[in-house]
């Protein structure tokens, strides 16, 4: 592998994520500075490949949540759209979109998210053979992606800016209805756990009405 694009291309070719639609209930745990559980919420999520994700906070009838669609993020509070900003979700891109869209598009999206796609290293991380895409100079600011070399799925993202290191670990991969999927994500800041996402009631519907991802339909969206 000579670049991040080469790794992304292999992920696309593997086509291991055959599902085009995904729904799940997410238990979202927040932790205090002592890594003690401080708050627990239930979020409801729907995904359609590539690039569509809806999150409703606390109930399906909630007026609070977010939508990612076609490179934009819509933020809702009290049933009103508060923001619409250009933004891609790197976690969704690396978990799901990468298997459904052209490798060049994925590479461009990750470049826009400030990952250096010209750099890749074949190495061992946490006892696994991996590809690390991005900057390797860990004593400076860096941003990189860790991909399982054998299964070609994402294991972690890391982002260090000034004195803050943020890491997301994709864990507890399980084979559900023939699909490997991470059922847990842990978020760390400076090596301390700040948030944990646990995915439950995972389903792969044949279809999802994509009009639910339209901002004007947020309040009434159901799946």
* Domain module tally: 1
The radius of gyration computed from the alpha-carbon positions, rounded to a whole number of angstroms, is 17 Å
CATH class: Mainly Beta
Quickly give the structural class: mainly beta
Distance between the termini: 40 Å
**How big a fraction of the residues is strand?**
over 45%
Mean pLDDT: 94
How many individual helices? 3
Instruction: Provide the succession of SSEs.
Output: HEEEEEEHHEEEEEEE
Identify the CATH architecture: Clam
Give the strand tally: 13
Low-confidence stretches: none
Q: What composes the largest sheet?
A: 13 strands, antiparallel
Strand order of the largest sheet: 6-5-4-3-2-1-13-12-11-10-9-8-7
CATH T-level fold name: outer membrane lipoprotein receptor (LolB), chain A
Question: Strands, helices and their partners?
Answer:
Blueprint: H1 4-14, E1 21-31, E2 37-48, E3 52-57, E4 65-69, E5 72-77, E6 80-86, H2 90-95, H3 103-112, E7 120-125, E8 128-134, E9 142-148, E10 154-161, E11 164-176, E12 179-189, E13 192-203
Antiparallel strand pairs: 1-2, 1-13, 2-3, 3-4, 4-5, 5-6, 7-8, 8-9, 9-10, 10-11, 11-12, 12-13
Helix pairs in contact: 1-3
